[in-house]
Amino acid sequence: MRRLIIDTDPGVDDSMMIQFALVSPEVQVEALTTVYGNSDVATTTGNALTNLEVARRPDIPVARGAGRPLTRPALTKHPVHVHGNDGLGNAGPARSGRLPVATPAAALIVERVLQSPPGALTLLAVGPLTNLALALHLEPAIASRVREVVFMGGTTGRGNVTPTAESNIHHDPESARMVLRAGWPVTMVGLDVTARTLMTPAHVAEIRRAETPAAAFISAITPFYFAYHSGRLGREAMPVHDSSALAYVLDPSLFTVEPAYVDVEVQGELTTGQTVVDFRGQLDRKPNVKVCVDVRSDRLLEMYVERTRGG
Questions:
Q1: pLDDT per residue over 75-129, tens digit each?
Q2: Beta-carbon neighbour count of residue 237 at 10 Å?
Q3: Which of 134, 219, 262, 299 could disulfide-link 208, Cβ–Cβ 3.0 to 4.6 Å?
Q4: Percent helix, strand, coil in the chain (nearest 5)?
């Protein structure tokens, strides 16, 4: 069983991933750390607590993290057209009465890593990478003690918020660059695989038949997200972004990976936030990232439905 800290900005797809993680026997979720992104950090922190309330997991701490990028101005707009005003598809679920722990997210990451044996903890990051960059700034030694960093973000081709950049990286390219250059094992689960794994309403209907709190929650938060993506895709479907990153942790054999040197453009006039992926070694730098380039989408979707419906 892999011990896991999930750094997240819930978010509909983040919430779907959290529910997936909490019913997966391969991982032990030790904490949720929150960051701005899909909503402001107050909202994402509340949504993380709501997810744990749904799953009846009050034992898992939630630590509130960064509310803005490392060096850039705070975001003035969040993607409410994608995730809703509440970050949960305007579903209005009952809010948790719990509060986050007093320790900030970056400090909690450092504490948990240093208190664990080397190689014991995996960091799964599915939002902007600001908290991980702050943790590295607090204690660079964590890079030699983490088993792996798996992040949802980046792309080797088309972006989603700009022609070349994926949103998590674009929100804080300086932090992403720090994370990629830290020297720890990193796997990138980017749009190359997440955008080709498409969930349909039939998948959610199958989950809903389980009549569990988690199934009802997933069913409630997804219609708004479906509506946005269906308008863009021209079919009733939505990409499985954050759950794809978790699926890599659960079963790496679902993915084809290629090692490459990856860096982030931080100053480009048209390309800020682009993940520059050097598969051909043209930059003459040692590969620092395992890049997911293909995925067994059908099996990933089967796993998601089987786990979240309790089968």
A1: 988 999 999 999 999 998 778 889 999 999 999 999 999 999 999 999 999 999 9
A2: 18
A3: 219
A4: 40, 20, 40
Sign of torsion over alpha carbons 8, 103, 131, 45:
positive
Task: Report the CATH superfamily, name and number, of domain 2-308.
Answer: Ribonucleoside hydrolase-like (3.90.245.10)
163 neighbors 157 (Cβ within 8 angstroms): no
The token duo for 109 is: 């990451």
Q: Would the pLDDT of 46 be above 60?
A: yes
Catalytic residues: 241
Tokens of 144: 């030699």
Give the model's confidence band at 36: pLDDT under 50 very low, under 70 low, under 90 confident, else very high.
very high
Domains of the chain, by residue range, sit at 2-308
pLDDT of residue 310: 81
